[in-house]
Design a protein that fits this description.
The strands form six sheets. A five-stranded mixed sheet has the order 4-5-6-10-7. A five-stranded mixed sheet has the order 15-14-16-17-18, with helices on both faces. A two-stranded antiparallel ribbon has the order 1-13. By secondary structure, it is α/β, with parallel strands linked by helices. The longest helix is centred in the C-terminal third of the chain and has 22 residues. The protein has two domains: 166 residues, CbiD-like; 191 residues, no CATH class. Helix content is 40%, strand content 22%. Helix 1 runs parallel beside helix 2 and helix 10 runs antiparallel to helix 11.
């Protein structure tokens, strides 16, 4: 099997290529082409296929996004740019399927189309040489189906409404890039900080977010999805002067943090049972119970195993203690900059264990919401 994965190109690259083709067709209708060359931010030149159509006073070009081997939900979407004569300079507008920014904290001002700075610069650079100094164009970027796709992205959490964002920093999609995924999580913190939150909730998944907001009344804009990158998000919170963080999520994920594991992807490190078993043994769990913990297939089962050996109060004290260990490890990771609390949940959303700091942060956030 060939381990080399195919790279793709970003929505920003598609928009820049479509913009160039549309403006060329608008101003130079005798020069319509089916391929267009653009220069990427790092100097590479890329040639993309494009389809163009013209009407009275407008021209529209479409580029189909190819994300390569990256599992990008926008792979195969049509990125369309319609060009019309405008005032002097270049005006960008959001068409159907392209979102609009409604909350502060992002790189794009509130009210503007969700077209990030690098794609904006790429689009303008791609068309500038076609436009006479005393002329201008209006460019409307559309992504048919983008509104539906956006519901599966972070855009609703970021306050980007109506569609997708036009993204990209290099113009190229690196397949299966963990760095790209980590970076995509960070704007959630920026938005929350811009809205005034200094205490945030980090939760690995959407189930945890739903439980936090709907089950416990925590403010939705203060809840940040971390994926498996809990350590990276904790450090990002510290860098952005967040004061307090509540780690919130399923015990099977977060108990790893009690063992100093901050990337909770099971392929990276999976010591859930070992962490619980070692501490349970230290708390006096008999060998039979330790073996049952180690052989359990899920942490839901582990919770029940402990209930078979200990009273409910003892179980709760144990899980509260492991929650406090997760908080301590997190504080140590950030050099003591963050106050951290932890709440372990089961699949039904019930609290399995929570430390004192976690309880305090929960109450603070409930009142803040």
């Amino acid at each position: 099997m060939d381990a080399k994965l195919k790279k793709g190109y970003t929505t920003g690259t598609c928009a820049a290529a479509a913009a160039r083709a549309a403006v060329q067709a608008l101003l130079w209708p005798d020069q319509i082409e089916d391929r267009v060359r653009i220069t990427l931010p790092r100097g590479e030149v890329l040639e993309l296929p494009v389809t163009v159509q013209r009407g009275e006073g407008w021209a529209e070009a479409t580029v189909i996004k190819d994300a390569g081997d990256d599992p990008d939900i926008t792979h195969g979407v049509a990125v369309q740019v319609r060009a019309r004569p405008g005032g002097r300079g270049i005006t960008l507008k959001a068409g159907r399927g392209v979102g609009r920014v409604t909350l502060p904290g992002l790189a794009v001002p509130v009210g503007e189309p969700a077209i990030n700075p690098v794609p904006r610069a790429m689009i303008c650079a791609a068309v500038r040489d076609f436009i006479p100094a005393d002329k201008g164009v209006e460019l409307t970027i559309s992504i048919p189906g983008g509104e539906e796709l956006a519901r599966r992205t972070f855009n609703p959490q970021l306050g980007i409404e109506g569609g997708l964002s036009v993204l990209g920093t290099t113009g190229i999609v690196e397949p299966m890039s963990e760095e790209a995924l980590r970076v995509s999580l960070l704007p959630q913190i920026d938005v929350a900080r811009a809205l005034g939150y200094t205490a945030l909730v980090l939760t690995p998944g959407r189930r945890g977010r739903s439980q936090a907001v709907e089950g416990y009344g925590l403010p939705v804009r203060a809840v940040v999805l971390s994926g498996n990158y809990i350590g990276d998000l904790l450090l990002a919170c510290a860098e952005r002067r967040v004061k307090k963080v509540l780690l919130w999520g399923h015990v099977g994920k977060l108990v790893k943090v009690a063992g100093g594991i901050f990337n909770t992807q099971s392929r990276t490190a999976d010591a859930r049972r070992e962490i619980v078993a070692s501490w349970a043994a230290a708390w006096g769990l008999p060998a039979e119970g330790v073996r049952a913990v180690l052989s359990a297939n899920t942490l839901e089962v582990v919770v029940q195993v402990l209930r078979g050996f200990w009273e409910e109060r003892r179980c709760r004290e144990f899980w509260d203690y492991l929650a406090s260990l997760a908080s301590r490890r997190s504080r140590e990771l950030t050099g003591g900059v963050l106050e951290v609390g932890t709440a372990f949940l089961n699949l039904a959303g019930g609290v399995v264990g929570v430390d004192e700091e976690g309880t305090r942060i929960m109450e603070e956030l409930r009142h803040a919401g």
